[in-house]
Design a protein that fits this description.
Alpha-Beta Plaits, four-stranded antiparallel beta sheet, YebC-like, 3 domains, 240 residues, Arc Repressor Mutant, subunit A, 8 strands
Amino acid sequence: MGRKWNNIKEKKASKDKSTSRIYAKFGREIYVAAKQGEPNPDSNQALKFVLERAKTYSVPKHIIDRAIEKAKGGGEENFDELRYEGFGPSGSMVIVDTLTNNVNRTAADVRMTYGKNGGNMGTTGSCSYMFDYTAVLGVEDKTVDEIIELMMEEELDVRDVVDEDGAVIIYAEPDQFHAVQEALKTIGVETFTVTELAMLPQNEVTLTGDDLEQFEKLIDALDELEDVQNVYHNVDLGDA
């Protein structure tokens, strides 16, 4: 497994300038999921997944309701999901997932941000082959042994189950996400600390000095872009 999920989440949270950025991202994602299918999580798995993620970030109900109502009203905005891959200082790898209603604007913004912050945008597939698309679920008040036993009973061959800072994190194949989640609910899990589908690096690199400072500026700048939903990378930020 690559780096620990808790490290990723903590760094993401620390880099967000305000919760308004998180809410805006989720509002857009909820709107797109609700518009692409039924605006009802009971019959729309994509929407259900986004709403479950939103809970782990404490997104307010009014943000969720507004996005769903906008979709119900036949909002005319159309968004494309696009991925950009590139490199930061010393060959570090950065993947940027976007949701945009203006492809040309987003491509230009991402390319310019890479360039202004010591990086350069690569071609499709230039970085993603070094990452694994992974389902990540986190629970509290359970032990690793309990979860492993449950996975065996349910015949779910997950990638890993580990204790990370007091929470049990389950790493699984993306198509196992809902099966793992439903299995956890059968043993009384009602609240999840993590419910994500993420790109996790197969290996990490360590940067120091000016390279590390430049890299953090690059990640901050990319995350600040309006159309960016997620930024993944392969750098061990440690306690930086």
